[in-house]
Amino acid sequence: MDAIIDGWVVAKRNLIKIKRVPDLLIFSTIQPIMFVLLFAYVFGGAISAPGVNYREFLMAGIFTQTVAFGSAITGMGLAEDMTKGIIDRFRSLPMSRAAVLVGRTTSDLINNILVVAIMAICGLIVGWRTHTNPLDVAAGFGLLFLFGYAMSWISATIGLSVRSVEVAQSAGFIWMFPLTFLSNAFVPTDTLPTFLQYVADWNPISAIVAALRDLWGNSPTGAARGAGWSMENPGLYSLITIAVILAVFVPLSIRAYRKAASR
Amino acid sequence: MGDAIVARGLVKTYGPVRAVDGLDLNVPEGTVLGLLGPNGAGKTTTVRMLTTLITPTAGQITVRGVDVLTHPNEVRRVIGVSGQYAAVDEHLTGYENLEMVGRLYHLGRKRARARARELLERFDLTDAADRPSKTYSGGMRRRLDLAGALVAAPPILFLDEPTTGLDPRSRIGMWDVLNELVREGTTLLLTTQYLEEADELAEDIIVIDHGRAIARGTPDQLKQQVGGERLEITLHSKADASAVVETVAALGMAGYTVDESAHKVVVPVADGTDALFEAVRRLDAAAIKPADIGVHRPTLDDVFLKLTGRPAEDETEEAVEAR
Asked: Bridge-partner residues for B81, per DSSP?
């Protein structure tokens, strides 16, 4: 219980920083907007997804990529915190040991929600529409944020295991490129070579994207949906992935925090 | 009265470096202990171990009888910590910093807010309360940090070099605040590089060097060991030296030294100010005009020179930790 209350106090502190130094929010929004415009207007003409308008197909992919990349700020924020005097204040207080992590992941979740809201508006402008009931649309966003939250804990573990903000930044980003591009986020996987298609169809990013498309009525038809159990049950596979990430990385990052802080 | 803080056989090693090397200390309730030593002596490492921030390699620590290693959170409830590097969030205002700390002590929203206002008032920060703390001067940041340590009105306070980097006026202001806290019954452990500061604040002093205690005692005992105040008279030519010695030697407690090359006569005295007045009167009567005359108090360097035979090394603690 303390972890949640204390975590919220720490989250509020992080949110004040977003308000006072909005650069990070602005830059984390510019990139996805650029992607929306690039893929919608530049690559979009060359890629087709059967049974669905490409711009509708695209948005679930870009949303997912954005929250995945956005999770890198969790690690950067924590790596920065560890270099500041304030962490000593936190550690000398009788507060929950997990509060700094809960607070950081919570404020990054809120940051993610802001970024996604701006992108959604941008998507609506370029022609993205949902075709399901509001409950399903909301469930889609819920899944998206849950996934972003889980990714934040991976990022937290990375950020606390390295010794500088710069390393946290590159270590947090570098694996995101293959992870997000080797998926169905931008192209239907049936266009890939067989081996890569297999990898992409089992990539958890593909599962999130497919689940979002299903929930929003943006899915392609036929072979473009991808193959295998993971693509037949993208929602379930997504939830399992999220549960596994949290089960592994919450304890790992708490351990990394204790270790990093008591040196 | 029992001991508020007890440490036995405290050791912290960083690789081959023994930052703290078998330190014992105890601080009775309501008293002030000063850890005196140069940079890199192990003062900060000691405070960080005592305040649950780092784990000792060996040794035991109890605070109010509670084992710091096994029950850190119980200890954190009764201590306040203010470090060498102000532990404040630079993006938060002074008020937000203190309110946050109050909430994290679980004071509740209302009390946390009231306490924040109260401490800002006490530390003369009311005007700056709603400005981000990164706009504060060094002295203001230090005061805010100390205020953060006092949010829960802890009976035991740890301060790591509370006045390092402050200008003389801020330093004296800080001393006043600390003396007031001690009068109110706070047990205080502080580290300092300044003998003068330890003298002003502490009832007991431990001089540490290379992580070990090299002397202990009250400020008076320590000063007796190194010699107290001394009158130093520098002359234009050494020809005057014998005349000066004749004139002022009687002012001293015991003996005097003449530094021929520097044309300097040094006389240990009991009361520097009185001796200075008297010396000036006598020199004037004898028509001797010195190049410089003044009272010098022993410094940390003097203590070190006396205790170790070498001057205090200036080695930063980070350099030790990085090795």
From this structure: B158
Give the length of chain B. 323
d(CA B82, CA B88): 10
- Total residue length of chain A: 263
CA B304 to chain centre: 15
Neighbouring-strand partners of residue B18: B13
* Local structure of residue B162 (DSSP, 8 states): T
Domain boundaries, chain B: 3-224, 229-296
Give rounded-to-5 percent helix, strand, coil for chain A. Answer: 80, 0, 20
Q: Which CATH number fits domain B229-296: 3.40.50.300, 3.30.70.100, 3.10.290.10, 1.20.120.790?
A: 3.30.70.100
Give yes or no for a contact between B220 and B52, defined as CB atoms under 8 angstroms apart. no
Out of B73, B77, B104, closest to residue A9 by CB: B104
Residue of A nearest to B79 (CA): A92
Look up residue A245 and give its two tokens.
Answer: 């990430």
Of residues B321 and B64, more confidence is placed in B64
| pLDDT of A99 higher than 70 | yes
Q: Identify from A6, A10, A86 which residue to disrupt to test chain B contact, counting B C-beta atoms within 10 A and taking the largest count.
A: A86
Task: Identify the closest residue of chain A to B12 by CA–CA distance.
Answer: A263
* A contact test, residue of B68, B74, B89 with most A CBs within 10 A: B89
How confident is the model over B178-207, as a mean pLDDT? 91
| pTM as predicted | 0.81
End-to-end CA distance of chain A: 27
Residue A232 sits at the chain B interface (C-beta within 8 Å): no
Q: How far apart are CA A168 and CA A74, in angstroms?
A: 9
Question: What residues of chain B lie within 8 A of the CB of A2, using their CB?
Answer: 106
Contact predicate B94/B133, CB 8 Å: yes
The pLDDT of residue A201 is above 70: yes
Residues A100, A87 contacting (CB under 8 angstroms): yes
What is the phi/psi pair of residue B59, to 5°?
110, 170
**C-beta separation of A187 from A103 below 8 A:** no
Q: Which helix (H) or strand (E) holds B194?
A: none
Rounded to 10 degrees, the C-alpha dihedral A24/A162/A152/B92 comes to -50
Any B CB within 8 A of A258 CB: no
Q: Does domain B3-224 have CATH number 3.40.190.10?
A: no
Beta-sheet pairing, B156-160 with B79-82 = parallel
